[in-house]
Model the fold of this input.
Amino acid sequence: MVLEQFLSRSDELHQSILGLIGDSEIYPGERFLTSFGMCSLSLEHALSIRTLMAIGLQTSAASLLRLQFESLTRGMWLLYGASDAVVEKLTAPLTPDSEQAAKNLPSVDEMIKQMAAKAHPDAIRMLNEFKEISWKALNSFVHCGIHPLHRHVGGFPEQLAMQAVQNSNGLLTMAGMTMAILTGDENCTKPMSKIQHQFKDCLPILIT
Done:
């Protein structure tokens, strides 16, 4: 499968997730709405990655993978690990004071630890494995280190681009599953639990 076909298949995955979520209502409460919003932001990053890949801006696309991962992790943490006080900080109207108050949020490692007792063990495992494998390279991309320089100047191999999209698809699927949980609707959660098998040709092995 070439990159163009892989992107097309990934678009189908994205549309399937959106179709399952549809107009389902979310559990009431700021925690659930904020978690859903963070997961939705993660979906936006996934779409942006594929859009940039499609027009040949692979280095910029790869940089967004970290943002997609962090927004997913924060969305899950808001559901499973964040305190009520933290939820209040993130849902406050955007002002200089609320911006300052929201700066002292936990690191990715701390968020994963805090939600480990409540989130599904497989979800925690996948977050940890993604971070362990990708974090150093993603830091380099975000902070304009050696990785983006070499990929921009020397070219971005198609296989590496497909791998980045594949990883993005894994995060996309996890975000979709979390959003489905937030609906509490079996018409959404049951088919969403099977979606990774339907699209295993464009997902990482660890999520299939």
